[in-house]
Design a protein that fits this description.
Helix content is 58%, strand content 12%. It is built from 19 helices and 8 strands.
């Protein structure tokens, strides 16, 4: 008896929430695993629950979560919907006041003061764990596979069990006018669907009637077998299996779409517009504008000294002050742009904008065109020169002059070390020029590079000799300082400083030229015909479009079947017990049963809806073919455009290189023209305008060079995406996205786009 009560109680309660959730997972996850039929279809992790350290994680029981925080205004209508009192017991699982899991920031290794250190890889890893977009895409794949479990269930044995207990009171006054009966009934059975369209129903029914007044009881049991088999409409595997077939194929399509999404997600985070490379570009822009501001500030300070000495007009001073203010504004704009880009990037990763970040700028090291130590030496020399110009008209005492010569001697003595470093870097350029020409390399550009290289080779000994002469001249002038010769000694000091600046600028110009030429774009060795063939064979979305053609083609057959008449074979058998003869539930006899077999027919006299569906299926099939052709053509267009854009960007990069070289020379010439004692200039002197224009050109050229490089890398990754060549590991990081070095010889058959 206790066992029966327990079974009855479990039947009433059903299984637990966790049982059903885990049951769904047990059926769904293997479906996804089945679809990984190729490395291209790999989708990494499939579990929809975020990692415990994710911002998206839920620390509570998934089947009995506590009541979350609610909007105060909305809560009123939950407590009192309409005129009624709301349901109670909502807080039986507890109450929480948080949406985000506590402690997720600590998992990132940051606190209130430590910024989050980011590079391309770590940013991707953070996005894979915390991105809301990525989590939603993964859940969509799971839901597609979950829906398939229901399609499959249609062809499984579906058991059921039902029961009822009814007490009936009729009449009054006792026996015989009053009756009281108890009537327990139960049904137990199953249904089974067949691939050809048939349906089988097996039902065991048991009815027991007990009359209290007379103490009589009766029992009737029967087993019902019902088989329905369509012969025309809805008959055959083509029709009956269509929903299941589409569900199976649909999960494959979803897996392939998600596999492609993972690649696009990585590219969006690490490379493409709004991604990590754009942050680095914004950071480089900030650095360029700050370097320009420093040059503007130094030159403005120089102009103020020249103005005090009567060698610059107020108009020229005003022009540079305006330029200096503009440079300050540009730095502010660049800083704001960087901060805004960082905030948008954090949102893409699923992080709140308030978290401070620190970018790994290793990729930008190639855009550091001069050695920081040499830059500091030039700043020191320029400050030394400005101090000397401030002494115009009042030469310092002899002791001060000798100390200033000693200081200049120390500064000039650092120039040879800068030259040695520049010469050492030039050796890398030498090796670069000695390698064979790359496919598609512009011969004229290569010749210009060789010519510039040869010029620098011849320039180095001359600079070394001039440095020795400068040091000797400084020593000679210092030794000749006397009270009588203070003014000539001061003028010689200014000239020696100008010469030191000239030599250092020549060294920096050589180093800048070398480093500019050492910046190279990665090679993209691919022929258009090979690229198109590769893409047609590997594009996942094109494979899905091809499958969709067959899907719509099958639908034509299914829709045509619905035009037929209904002709169903129906067979039933229902052996039962005879309550007048037996009280045993399984004592069946032929006298207590029914048997039938027949044909059900419904003529196709009204098939307007089916006709329209059939006609639409024909059009849908043709549309699917056109969609495939359109996507195939679009892929061709994308790849051809990618190759054209890459060629244009490569040329644009070379143009930016030459523009920067030219702007750097223009700035150095204009600046050196300004330095040193000379006659008073008038307000219409072109030197100021040339210097202002040169500073503008240098800033624009530096920004253009960095932009060209970043744009090229973004387009190269876009080509990998359009070819479907980009491959990811289980973690979601690329295995073949790194550029092949320009001087590396291809081994074997190189990938199409690398």
């Amino acid at each position: 008896m206790r066992v029966r009560v327990l079974i009855f109680t479990l039947a009433l309660a059903g299984c637990t929430r966790s049982h059903y959730r885990e049951s769904a997972d047990r059926e769904t996850y293997p479906i996804l695993t089945e679809r990984i039929m190729s490395p291209q279809y790999d989708i990494g992790r499939t579990r929809v629950e975020p990692a415990p350290f994710s911002r998206l994680a839920d620390p509570f029981d998934p089947d009995a979560p506590p009541k979350p925080p609610d909007d105060l205004a909305s809560a009123r209508f939950m407590a009192h919907p309409y005129k009624l009192r709301g349901a109670s017991g909502w807080e039986k699982n507890g109450v929480t006041n948080v949406i985000e899991p506590p402690g997720w920031q600590e998992a990132l290794g940051i606190d209130g003061t430590t910024p989050l250190k980011l590079n391309q890889e770590s940013a991707t890893e953070i996005g894979l764990v915390n991105s809301r977009e990525y989590q939603t895409a993964l859940e969509n794949v799971y839901l597609q596979a979950l829906a398939l479990t229901l399609n499959r269930f249609d062809f499984d044995v579906k058991w059921y069990g039902r029961g009822s207990n009814t007490f009936t009171n009729a009449g009054s006054g006792g026996f015989p006018t009053e009756t009281n009966t108890l009537n327990p009934t139960s049904d137990f059975g199953f249904t089974k669907g067949f691939a050809a369209g048939g349906q089988l129903l097996v039902d065991f029914a048991n009815a027991f009637v007990f009359e209290y007044a007379g103490g009589s009881a009766s029992l009737h049991s029967n087993i019902a077998f019902t088989l329905t088999q369509p012969l025309l409409r809805n008959a055959g595997r083509q029709v009956r299996l269509e929903s299941l077939t589409q569900g199976e194929r649909g999960v494959l399509y979803a897996v392939r779409d998600y596999a492609r999404f993972r690649k696009q997600f990585w590219a969006g985070v690490a490379v493409q517009s709004g991604g990590y490379l754009d942050l680095l570009l914004a950071l480089q822009t900030v650095r360029n504008t700050r370097a320009n501001l420093q040059r503007q500030q130094e030159t403005y300070a120089l102009y103020k000294e020249l103005f005090r000495g009567g060698r610059a007009s107020v108009v020229e001073l005003d022009q540079f002050f305006q330029s200096y203010l503009t440079a300050r504004s540009a730095v502010l704009d660049a800083d704001i742009a960087l901060q805004s880009a960082q905030d948008a990037f954090k949102l893409r990763l699923g992080l709140p904008p308030r978290i401070p970040v620190e970018l790994d700028d290793a990729l930008l090291s190639r855009f550091v065109l001069t050695d920081p130590a040499a830059d500091k030496l030039r700043d020191d020399l320029e400050a030394f020169q400005r101090a000397r110009l401030a002494e115009l008209g009042a030469a310092p005492p002899v002791a001060d002059l000798k100390a200033q010569y000693a200081a200049l001697r120390g500064l000039a003595g650092q120039i040879p070390a800068a030259l040695e470093k520049a010469v050492a870097e030039r050796e890398s350029w030498t090796r670069r020029l000695e390698r064979p020409a790359r496919p598609g390399e512009d011969p004229e550009q290569r010749d210009r590079a060789r010519s510039a290289h040869e010029t620098l080779i011849g320039q180095a000994p001359e600079l070394a000799a001039d440095m020795k002469k400068l040091v000797a001249r400084i020593d000679r002038h210092r030794d000749g300082v006397t009270e009588k010769e203070r003014l000539p000694a001061w003028e010689a000091l200014v000239e020696d400083t100008k010469q030191a600046l000239t030599l250092l600028d020549a060294v920096l110009a050589a180093q800048t030229q070398t480093r500019i030429y050492l910046i190279e774009l990665p090679d993209v060795t691919v022929r258009e015909a090979d690229a198109l063939t590769y893409a047609k064979e590997n594009r996942l979305d094109l494979q899905n479009a091809l499958g969709a053609i067959t899907d719509t083609w099958r639908q034509v057959t299914v829709a045509a079947n619905a035009l037929k008449a209904d002709l169903n074979l129906v067979a039933t058998a229902s052996p039962g017990t005879n309550p007048a003869v037996t009280t045993r539930a399984f004592d069946f006899s032929t006298k207590g049963g029914d048997y039938s077999v027949g044909i059900q027919f419904d003529s196709p006299l009204n098939r307007v809806a089916e006709r329209n569906t059939y006609r639409a299926s024909l059009i849908t099939y043709q549309r699917a073919k056109r969609s495939y052709m359109a996507l195939s053509d679009q892929i061709e267009q994308q790849i051809r455009q990618d190759l054209r854009v890459l060629a244009r960007l490569r040329l644009g990069f070379e143009i930016s290189r030459q523009q920067l070289l030219s702007a750097a020379r223009q700035y150095e010439n204009a600046r050196l023209t300004l330095l040193g004692p000379r006659d008073r200039r008038t307000a219409n002197d072109t030197t100021t305008l040339n210097l202002l224009q040169a500073l503008t050109n240098v800033l624009a050229a530096r920004n253009a060079l960095a932009t060209s490089y970043i744009n090229y890398e973004q387009q190269r990754i876009q080509l990998l995406l359009d070819l479907e060549e980009l491959q990811l590991d289980q973690q979601g990081l690329p295995t073949n996205a790194a550029p092949r070095p320009a001087d590396a010889a291809p081994a074997g058959a190189p990938p199409p786009a690398r």
